[in-house]
Amino acid sequence: MQGLLLSILLFTKKINHTANVVLTIAMLALSIDVFHSAYIIFGYYKEMPGFIGITYAFPFLYGPIFYLYAKLISSSSNDFKLKYYLHFIPFFIVVIYGIAFVYLKSSEFKFALLRGEVETPLVLELMNYLKPFYGIIYVFLTIRVVRVYNNRIRNSYSNIERINLNWLKHLTIGLSVIWGVVVISYVVHAVADKNIEMDGFIYMSASVLIYSIGYLSLRQPQIFDQVINKSEERPEPERKTKTAEITSYQKSGLADTEAKSHLDNLLRMMDTDKPYLNCDLTLRNLAEKLSVSPHNLSEILNTRINQNFYDFINRYRVEEVKRRLAENESQKYSLIAIAFDSGFNSKSAFNTIFKKHTGTTPSQYRKQLT
What residues pair up with 334 in beta bridges, in sequence order? Predict the structure, then answer.
């Protein structure tokens, strides 16, 4: 029921509608899968055999759906491209064979199928063994999309807590655990010729997955709504190699003297105007202040300072925190208050970034000053 309610909420979201529709399909499929499991476990199939096997092809949906959701939610384009349907070829193969072999058969045949008295067609048998590996492949593809996206947004945003997709990475890792259990059960069956009943664990895990997504959607609505300033252009998810980035910058036409001049202006502005105190500062905002294009500013940061925008701005914020902590009046304020006044907007991000730049936690650093 939770999954069905969440599906309705996702489907009615107007922002990133295509991505949310894709996720809605996953939620509905997971919900039906869980209900079908209860339908079999509690013996309801004896009275209503018509639903036996309707979810057999569903495992071939989850991997592509979560992968495509990650692609859509992390892309500047929210269009569902025609080539995306190719990811569902295995699903349609199983559905077609299922219709011919199971769904249109008599109740007696379906009961015999559950008891293992009917030989399964070779294609369905093969697909059955391939489905966990198919799912694991998409786990890695989804994690890669998330990793690339999280790396890309560091070139455009100084605070990424609201827009990173770490929650999706954790969710995908959860899927990998479920698929891993399925693979283990297959291996045990092949080696020891023993069947391990894992349906209860798998479907319980699927239920937890549904509730986790619901929890995240309520706690972090900006993840599902993608609350990003409309004036900002979301960075593309494709990841460039270092060589490709350098080649791209070489084609920008930015002369060395011009780059040096912009760099001097940038460093001067950082010291005098302190734009990093604005927690919502973006590459585009800073570029406008310097009267330079965002691409050229990114080039200057990456080639002249060897830092992305995120690390560059937060290094200044850390130094601002350190400067304020060194003042006598700092004892009047909490660490988080000082952090927020210095441009941070998240306690967890502040702690992580501060330790990255100083090698110690904020509280430990403060104790060292006393």
Answer: none
DSSP for 235-287, please give it.
PPSPPPPHHHHHHHHHTT---HHHHHHHHHHHHHHHHHT-GGGSTT-BHHHHH
Note the pTM of the prediction, 2 decimals. 0.77
For residue 14, what are its two tokens?
A: 């107007």
Local structure of residue 52 (DSSP, 8 states) = T
Neighbours of 95 (CB within 10 A): 17
Whether 74 and 202 map to the same domain: the answer is yes
Of 101, 122, 91, residue with least CA distance to 53: 101
Question: How distant, in Å, are the alpha carbons of 29, 156, 159, 308, 338 from that of 23?
Answer: 10, 27, 26, 32, 39
- Angle (deg, nearest 10), helices 122-153 and 89-98: 150
236 in a structural domain? no
Please check whether residues 76 and 145 belong to one and the same domain: yes
More confident residue, 245 or 201: 201
Strand partners, 157: 282
**What pLDDT digit, counting tens, does each position of 103-160 carry?**
888 888 888 877 778 777 788 788 888 888 888 899 999 999 999 988 888 999 999 8
Q: Which domain holds residue 12?
A: 1-229
Same domain, 206 and 87: yes
Residue with tokens 């988080």: 336
Task: Give domain status of residue 348, yes or no.
Answer: yes
Phi-psi region of 204 (alpha: psi -120 to 50; beta: other; left: phi over 0): alpha
